[in-house]
Amino acid sequence: MRRNEFLVGLAAVLAGWPLIAHASQSGRSVTIGLLGSGTATSQSAWTAAFLQRMQELGWVEDRNLVVEYRWADGETDRLARLVQDLIRLKVDLILTHNTPPTLAAKAATATIPVVFATAGDAVGSGIVSSLARPGGNVTGLTFMASGLLAKRLGLLKEAVPSISRVLVLSYLIDPIAAPQVQELQRAARALNVTLLVQNVRSGDDLPAAFDAGVRAHVEGVLTTAESLFAAQRRRVVDLAARHRLPGVYPYRAMVDVGGLMAYDSYTPDLVAQTATYVDRILKGANPAELPIERPTKFDLVINLKTAKALGLTIPPSLWAQADQVIE
Description:
The protein has helices spanning 3-26, 44-56, 79-88, 99-108, 148-159, 177-191, 206-215, 227-231, 233-242, 252-256, 268-282, 304-309, 316-321; strands spanning 30-36, 65-71, 93-97, 114-119, 138-142, 165-170, 194-199, 220-223, 247-249, 261-264, 299-303, 324-326. It is α/β, with parallel strands linked by helices. It folds into 2 domains: 3-144 and 266-289, 3-Layer(aba) Sandwich (Rossmann fold); 148-264 and 299-326, 3-Layer(aba) Sandwich (Rossmann fold).
């Protein structure tokens, strides 16, 4: 990009923030575009919690806040078109859920503020150049933290000490998938565990991935943290149950539908902080100056009913770590 073009673009970005602030002060409704790669159903709990926190901050849907929802339903090739829909509506801010929608929004606009709620490796995937000073029109919160995948594998090993082969389901087209798999591979070597990594591109790939695991004599299952697995959570959990595989998952919702355990960074604190970022930008803050936040709270949830169905006795060390046990 030529220097003059860059300066013109930067001026346009900076000029936009006071206009949003004026709207909030004058009582005019603002419009947020919510762009997600999953489904409305799979993200319903998160969306409800976000809107509740926004209401506490003074932004009430159908009063001074309009939300335009766009969900890709797991089809990432739809994202470019969906974000253009939001741009045509002249939304004041785009809130993205997961990495692919964030990249789509970043590619489509340099002027509309973009807040990502749950992106993965923000620097490694090219969303921002720095966590401390993201620059441009994009900022938000990452759900990734160092050691998170290793922790999940360690929890599985703690629940089933004899485990030596683990099926890993990963949506490898997503830029956040490969670093997670690499972390798992390092952890697996330290725990003397062999991984069978299966690339899952849609829910229809899941039965074959589990069949490959059975042929390889796996004894447990993990998924990396892509939205595909949240959207397909019931199918993943049902297949794990059919093959009697204990699993540790990145999403609490997967335990709610019968998964054994989840170690989840999607805590109420993360939802509240997302709403705070949106509120600050709507009131005039510059996203270029809002540092990327990383999770500091993680919840371990154990499904006791599933443990019993698998014939597992949860060791006291895991009971002590659990934030919630589902009876």
